[in-house]
Write a structure and sequence with these properties.
Elements lengths: L2 H23 L4 H22 L7 H22 L1
Helix pairs in contact: 1-2, 2-3
């Protein structure tokens, strides 16, 4: 496995652990719900661009993935507030 894959995996572990700790200790705070959604979106971007090779894809697909993720997180955040 490449060194970049290992670094990405370490970051995914750290983000997953931080998401679990935030949800455990700050349950019910609306700001932290949005923070957890943001961390989840960042993890999705790491996986999509590193392991699914989206960084080599056409720019349309890169834009579409980022745009869809932005709309999805925005709508869910709006609904939860």
């Amino acid at each position: 496995m490449k060194l970049t894959h290992q670094k990405t995996l370490i970051w995914l572990y750290i983000l997953t652990l931080s998401t679990a700790l935030i949800s455990r200790f700050f349950y019910g705070w609306s700001f932290f719900v949005v923070l957890i959604l943001g961390l989840s979106a960042f993890k999705f971007m790491l996986v999509a661009f590193q392991f699914m090779e989206m960084k080599k894809a056409h720019s349309f697909w890169k834009f579409f993935i980022v745009f869809y993720l932005f709309i999805f997180v925005s709508v869910i955040s709006f609904i939860l507030k």
